[in-house]
Design goal:
The structure is a single chain. This protein is mostly helical. The protein has a domain of 46 residues. 69% of the residues lie in helices and 0% in strands. It is flat.
Length: 72
């Protein structure tokens, strides 16, 4: 399926750019703290839930926080 606006970057391209910027700027980047917070919340939820382990929760929480930052 062709994109309606091919000149606009895709969600994957935006996410890659955001992660690269976070890596370069570190904690000073505006997205770093919300993504870390999301990871911590996910890890805590993963530790509490019997089915999910904390590393899975950490990854899922960070991914959800990053996705919400990129979609803005």
């Amino acid at each position: 399926m062709a994109r309606q606006h091919p000149e606009e970057p895709t969600l994957v391209e935006l996410t890659i750019e955001e992660v690269k910027a976070m890596g370069k700027q570190g904690i000073d980047h505006p997205s770093t703290r919300p993504v870390i917070t999301g990871g911590v919340v996910g890890a805590i939820a993963g530790a509490v839930l019997p089915v999910v382990t904390w590393p899975v929760g950490l990854f899922a929480g960070a991914a959800i926080a990053l996705y919400s930052r990129v979609k803005r």
